[in-house]
Description:
The protein is an alpha/beta fold. It is 41% helix and 22% strand.
Amino acid sequence: MTYDLLGIGNAIVDVLARCDDAFISRHGLNKGAMTLVDAARAETLYAAMPPAVEVSGGSAANTMAAFASLGGRGAFIGKVADDQLGAVFRHDIRAAGVAFDTPPAKGGAPTARCLILVTPDAQRTMNTFLGACVALDEADIDEALVAAAAVTYLEGYLFDPPAAQAAFRKAARLAHAAGRQVALTLSDPFCVARHRAAFRALVAEEIDILFANEHEILSLYEAGSFEEAVAAVRAETRIACLTRSEKGSVIVADGEVHTIAAEPTEVVDTTGAGDAYAAGFLAGLVRGRPLPECGVMASVAAAEAISHFGARPVVPLAQLVKDRLAA
């Protein structure tokens, strides 16, 4: 079996709730960012949260679900525990049309969960208990699976556990040995700040396609302006896709810069926008579409993601993209 895309990332069940800014302040949360929390903090926040909706999540897993909605053939590597939430995650990603066969962790920490608070301005504040995710290591990287995928996509959020960094390096080496491409999403500026040197080395040495938003790329290169960051990333990667919220995105490749407009939509919840953007871009890329067209596909997918509550598509993205490109 061959795949268009293999995602490697955190296998997480998201718990989403709406709240006001007072809740964010009262609980000392870092608005708009992802913060790692321990089991006790996760339990305290969960108990205090307003009524919530639980859905399978994880950044790369969301990308894979969107990629499948675009008609792509995808597989996912991520660690869950042999528990109820692990079974929920496994069911959901397979139901989305993504192959998932990573063996569950026996004993130890439970399946990861991310507590997501969405404020009226549609910003999402994430508090993540990684649980079983930290158990993912080099042994979970299936050589045949990596070789069978046109692109291997790595999730920056998974960069915190040292074993996962080693797993990323192994996956990148295997992909390149098989003549495949490697993509990375930086995920979060605070994540970049924690591991800047390691990320810089990985990007320079192993990454063919980089995804980042404006804050993340500025953090990666400690740049004083977006233009400075663009110049820096141009020298290190073949393709860089840089999102800028309502300003759209910029694709830097082969000495050219393509500016892609954001698709008009009502912003309800920004959770998963970058994940969907990556899915749209990669769906176009593996089909050999021109880069500006890949960018439009990415923007369409991102617009769908932010138009509703939750990170995964609620309508078939393939049809949305077809309609948009035909317009």
